[in-house]
Design goal:
This protein has 543 residues and is an alpha/beta fold. It has 23 helices and 16 strands. Keywords: Metal-binding, Oxidoreductase.
Length: 543
C-alpha cells in the first residue's frame, strides 16, 4: 500500500494527514475509456510536451506522488530518458531551486534544533511498512554545486527513486532525509523563500553530537535499515563514514559508490587500452584531477585493481597521482588535508607543479580522471597530450552536473581522433565519428548503489565492508553482454539496471557471507542460482 502524505493548513501552520492510497473510485467517477496502458502513454506524452528540464522534473514529481505505479512503470520502460530528469543532471537544478519549486512535503527533515529530541521527529515518520533504505544528506556538497543547505532534499529523493526503479526496493520502505544543520551560502540565507534554518552551519562538535544521536535513534526506530550518506562535504564524508561504519549498516555513496563504479569502468577500459598498446594491465598509471571525497574514494578502490593484477599494496599506491587546486599533491609541498596524505607523492620535491599539461607530461598517465568540479579543465591541449602518449587514452570527466564536466564527449572524441575510452559522471549523447557511432560511458554511482542496498537489506548485513563494495564493482564490470562489449561500451545499458542490480546484490550478499557480516542465515548455502531466485522474488515491481 502506498502512503499519501496530504498537507493542509491550520492557523498558518502546515499539518500532514497520513492516508493510505484511496480505494478504486466508484463507477461514473472516472472517464469511461480510462485504462492503465493508454493512461501511461498519455502521461508520457504530457511529459514530452514540456520543454525545459525543470518543468519535466516538476511534472514527474507530481506524477510519482499521484500515481507511483504509472511513474515507475514509465521510468523502467524509458530509463535513459527518465534518469537525466529525476536524477543527474536535472536534479541539480531542482536542488538549486528547491525552495522556489517546492509543492508538497516529501521525506523527513531533521534539524539541528531537534538535537536532544531526534527520537520524536524520527518517530513521526509513518510506519506503514518497515523502512529499509534511507538516503541522508546534509546538503553541504550537492553534486559540484556547493552548500545548498535544505535545498539538498531532491538529491535524497532522486537517489531513492533509482533504488525503487533500479533495484525494486518497495517505495514505502524508503526514507529520504535532509539534515538541516544550517547553510553557509549567503544567497539562501537572504532568500525569503528559503525553506531551511536561516543560520550558519553548526560547529563540528555540535554536528557530531547531533549525528551520534541521529544515527542511534535511526537504528532504534528502524532496526533493518541501511543508511546511505550522500553529498556531505569531503571532511564530513570521511569522518562520519569512519565513525559509524563498524556500528551500523552505512555506506557513503560518494566515496564507496563512486569508487566502485569507476573501478568497474576503468577495469573494462584498461583491458581495451592495454590491448591497443600491447602493454600489460598492471602497467597503468592514473592521474586524478580533484582530490576530494570522490577522487580519494576512487583511488582507494582502484588500488584493488592493481592488487588483483598481482601488484603489492605499496606498488599499487604508487600508480596513483593527485592534483588539487594547488597542483600536484606531494609531501614536500607542505601541510596536506588528512585524506590526501596517503596518496601524496614522495618522489617529487621540486617547486609546485600547477599546469595540468606539464603534470601529464611528467606523470605520463594512461588514465586521467576528473573529480574536481572544474568545468572544461580538460582542454583540447590536455586531451591531445593524453592522446600523444597513449594509443587509447582513458579520460573520465566525472564531475556533475553536465555543466561542470571537465570536458564533453564531443571534445574527447575530436581531440583523440576517436580513440578515447570515455566515461563521464553526467550523460552525454553518442557521437557519429568517421562513419561509426561512438558511445560515451556514464561512470555514475547510480549503477552501484541500488544493487549494494538491495544486497545489504536482503542479506540483513551488520555493516557494509570494503569487500562487499569491491564485489559490487567487479559484478558490474562483469555484467557487460557480448553485444555491449562489441560496441565498445564500458558500462552496461542503463535499461538493464534491474538485472544488473540483481547480480550486484548477489555478489554483495556472497561477500557479506564470506566476511561473516550477514545476519540472514536462511540465505547461506543457497548457491548463485538459489540466491538470485530469492533476490528476484523480493524485488518490487509497479503494477
Ligand atoms: N560520477 C560520479 O558518480 C560522482 C560521484 C561523486 C562525486 N562526483 C563529482 O565529483 C566532484 C567532486 O566531488 P567531491 O566530493 O570530491 O568534492 P570536493 O569539493 O571535496 O573535491 C573537489 C576537489 O577538486 C579540487 N579542485 C578544485 N579546484 C581545482 C582546480 N582548479 N584544479 C585542480 N583541482 C581542483 C579540490 O582541491 C578538491 O580536491 C563533484 O562534481 C561531484 O558531483 C561524481
Ligand atoms: O549524484 C550523482 O549523480 C553522482 C554523485 O553522487 C555526485 O555527488 O555527483
Ligand atoms: Mg553524491
Amino acid at each position: 500500500m502506498t502512503i499519501i502524505l496530504t498537507p493542509y493548513w491550520t492557523n498558518g501552520v502546515q499539518k500532514i494527514k497520513v492516508m493510505p492510497q484511496p480505494p478504486k473510485p466508484k463507477h461514473g467517477l472516472v472517464p469511461p475509456a480510462l485504462d492503465a496502458s493508454t493512461h501511461a502513454l498519455r502521461c508520457l506524452n504530457q511529459l514530452r510536451s514540456k520543454t525545459s528540464g525543470i518543468e519535466k522534473y516538476i511534472y514527474l514529481s507530481a506524477l510519482k506522488d499521484r500515481d507511483p505505479d504509472v511513474f515507475y512503470k514509465l521510468c523502467l520502460q524509458n530509463m535513459s530518458e527518465f534518469t537525466p530528469i529525476i536524477y543527474t543532471p536535472t536534479v541539480g537544478d531542482a536542488c538549486l531551486q528547491y525552495s522556489h519549486i517546492y509543492r508538497r512535503p516529501e521525506g523527513l527533515f531533521v534539524s539541528i534544533k531537534d538535537k536532544g529530541n531526534i527520537h520524536e521527529v524520527i518517530n513521526n515518520w509513518p510506519k506503514i511498512d518497515e523502512a529499509r533504505i534511507s538516503v541522508v544528506t546534509d546538503g553541504s556538497r550537492i553534486l559540484g554545486l556547493g552548500d545548498l543547505g535544505i535545498n539538498g532534499m531532491p538529491i535524497a529523493i532522486g537517489k531513492l527513486s533509482l533504488y525503487i526503479a533500479g533495484a525494486g526496493i518497495r517505495p514505502e520502505s524508503t526514507i529520504p532525509i535532509c539534515l538541516d544543520l544550517g547553510t553557509n551560502t549567503e544567497r539562501y540565507l537572504e532568500d525569503p523563500l528559503y525553506l531551511g534554518l536561516r543560520q550558519k552551519r553548526a560547529s563540528d562538535q555540535e554536528m557530531t553530537e547531533f549525528m551520534d544521536e541521529f544515527m542511534y535513534e535511526m537504528s532504534v526506530a528502524f532496526p533493518k535499515l541501511m543508511i546511505q550518506f550522500e553529498d556531505f562535504s569531503t571532511d564530513n564524508a570521511f569522518k562520519y563514514l569512519e565513525r559509524y561504519r563498524n556500528t551500523y549498516p552505512v555506506f557513503n555513496d560518494d566515496i564507496q559508490g563512486t569508487g566502485a563504479v569507476v573501478l568497474s569502468g576503468f577495469f573494462n577500459a584498461a583491458k581495451l587500452s592495454s590491448a591497443a598498446s600491447g602493454n600489460p594491465l598492471d602497467s597503468h598509471r592514473i592521474l586524478f584531477f580533484g582530490a576530494g571525497s570522490a577522487g580519494v574514494g576512487v583511488a582507494q578502490q582502484l588500488m584493488s585493481f592493481f592488487i588483483l593484477q598481482g601488484l603489492p599494496k605499496e606498488e599499487a599506491r604508487r600508480r596513483v597521482w593527485f592534483v588539487d587546486s594547488q597542483g600536484l599533491v606531494y609531501n614536500a609541498r607542505g601541510r596536506l588535508a588528512e585524506h590526501k596524505k596517503y596518496f601524496a607523492r614522495d618522489d617529487y620535491s621540486g617547486p609546485p607543479m600547477t599546469n595540468l599539461v606539464d603534470i601529464i607530461k611528467y606523470v605520463k598517465p594512461t588514465a586521467l580522471l576528473g573529480l574536481s568540479t572544474i568545468s572544461g579543465a580538460f582542454t583540447s591541449e590536455v586531451i591531445q597530450t593524453m592522446a600523444s602518449i597513449n594509443a587509447r587514452p582513458i579520460i573520465f570527466p566525472l564531475s556533475n552536473p553536465v555543466r561542470l564536466s571537465e570536458c564533453s564527449f564531443n571534445d574527447a572524441v575530436e581531440h583523440t581522433n576517436g580513440h578515447v575510452l570515455f566515461a563521464s559522471g553526467s550523460p552525454f549523447p553518442e557521437q557519429e565519428f568517421q562513419g561509426s557511432t561512438l558511445y560515451p560511458g556514464q561512470g555514475n554511482n547510480m549503477y552501484i548503489f541500488p544493487g549494494v542496498g538491495l544486497g545489504a537489506i536482503i542479506g540483513r548485513v551488520k555493516s557494509v565492508t570494503d569487500a562487499m563494495v569491491e564485489a559490487a564493482s567487479l559484478g558490474l564490470a562483469d555484467s557487460l553482454t557480448d553485444e555491449e562489449r562489441a560496441l565498445g561500451l564500458l558500462y552496461p545499458r542503463i535499461e538493464r539496471i534491474r538485472d544488473i542490480s540483481m547480480h550486484i546484490a548477489r555478489a554483495v550478499i556472497e561477500a557479506a557471507q564470506r566476511e561473516g557480516v550477514d545476519r540472514n542465515e536462511s540465505l547461506r548455502g543457497l548457491g548463485d542460482a538459489g540466491l538470485l531466485d530469492v533476490i528476484k522474488e523480493k524485488m518490487w515491481s509497479p503494477m
